[in-house]
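User: Structure please.
Assistant: Input sequence and predicted structure:
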Amino acid sequence: MGRGKVVDFVDAVRRGDADPHKYVEKSLEEIARKDPLFNMFITIRSEIPEKINLKGRLPGVPIAVKDNIVTRGLRTTCASRILENFIPQYSATVVKLLEKEGAIIIGKTNMDEFAMGALGTTSAFGPTLNPLDPDLSPGGSSSGSAAAVASGVVDIALGSDTGGSIRLPAAWTGIFGLKPTYGAVSRFGLISYADSMDQIGPMSSSASDLALLFSIISSYDSMDPTSSQNPWGNSLEKISLSPPNFDHLHGLNIVVPRELAEHPEADENIVSNFWKGIKKLEGEGAQIIEISEPLFLKVPQIYYVIAFSEASSNLARFDGVRYGSRVVPPDDLDWDSYYMENRSMFGWEVKRRIVLGSFILSKGYYDMYYSQALKARGMIKRKVEELLGKGRVIATPGSPIRPLPIDYDATDLSKLNSIDAPLMIANLAGLPAITVPMGTAFNSPLSIQLIGPPWSDDRLIELAKVMEEIFG
C-alpha cells in the first residue's frame, strides 16, 4: 500500500519533480468533465492564482470546501436560495490555515440545504449523484465533498458533521472521513446548523492524506469560544508520513454494541460483512467485546430535539434584513408578512426543522422536550465514555444499509432511522469518529466506523492506516 496521493505529491514538489500549477489545472479539467455528471460543485474557482506558496505543507494542492464554510470573495450559499448571492467578506479560520500552507480552494461543494439532510438531495441547486453509481445517493449532507473525492477530481476535501454528515457520505462513496473531537477544529466561519454538535472535518481517498489535512486544520482559535488546544503537536504530520503500525491493533479492545450494529432496519448483507471485517481485526490481534445497550436506540430522538431547537434559533437571522436575499422590499409589507415572505425561500426540509424546533422551544413545551433531551444527552455521554474507558474504541458499520436510490422518498424514515444512532452518538457526546472503507460487496461500498475517547483522533487515524492495509 502506497502513501497518500497528496503526501506523495508534496514530497515530489519538494524534490522539484512536480509542478503545482499542473496539479491544479488537471483538477479543474476533471471538474469540467465530471461535474456535469454528478453535480458536485455549486461554485468553481475560475482562475488559478499566479503565485503559489511552494514552501507550505500543501503547495498548490487543490481542495474542495463544503459550501457552508465561508470563503472571502468566493460565493457561499449553504445550498440555499436565501444565500444564493452571498459573497463573504472574510474567510473561515480553516480556510486561512489551508491557504497559508499553499492549498488552492478549487471550489465550493454541493450539500443538503444548511446541512439538513442525509441524502444530498435537499440542495436548492439540485441533488448530488454518487460517482460509484449515479442512480444512488452519495449520502449527506457533505454530499459534494464526498463525491468530489470519490470521483477523483480532488484528493482532499472539507466537510462538516453535525449528525454524521461527513461519515455517512464517506461510507456511501468509499472514502475516509473524520468527525473530530468537538473543539479540535475551529468553527469560526462555519454557518451553524446546531452549534453544540457542528464540527468541520477532513475527507480524503487515503488515511495518510486525511492525517496531513487534519494536522493543518486542527489548532486553537481565539475566534471560536469552543475551540481547544489540541494535544497532538506535530505528531499528526508524522502519522501521515509513517507506515502503518500494527502495534496499535494488537491488544486493542473493540466494543461492538449490538443495538448500533444490528438495527432492525439494517441490511443483512452489510451487517454480515461488518462482522467479517471485525473478525479480521480480531485475527490481527484485537479483542472484541460484544455488549447490549438498549439506551443507544434512543439516540436519534434525543439528537433531533436538540438539533432542531438549535437550528430554529440559528436560522432566525436569515430574514432578508440581517442576512439573506429579499423576496420583497421591506417597506411594502408589515414586519410579520415581510418576515414570512423571505422565509419562504427556505426549502421544505429546512422549514420542517425550523417549525419543529420552534415548537419544542415554545412556552409550555421547553421543559417537556428540550430540558429532558439535555438531561438524556448527559446520560448518553456518561454511558459512552464509560464504555470507552481503558483505551477502548467502539466499532459499528459505517452505514448499516446500502446507499439509497437518489429518488428515495426522504419523508420515509424507516431506512434512515437505522443510520442515525451509530452516527449521531458521537455528535451528542462530542467524540471523534472515523469512517474507514473496507472494499465492496454486491456492488455496494463497505465500511467500519470507529468511535474513540475525547482527543483520541490521532489514534483513530493510526488505526485507519492499519485497516487500510488490511482491507486494501
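Residues 366-387 form the longest helix (22 residues).
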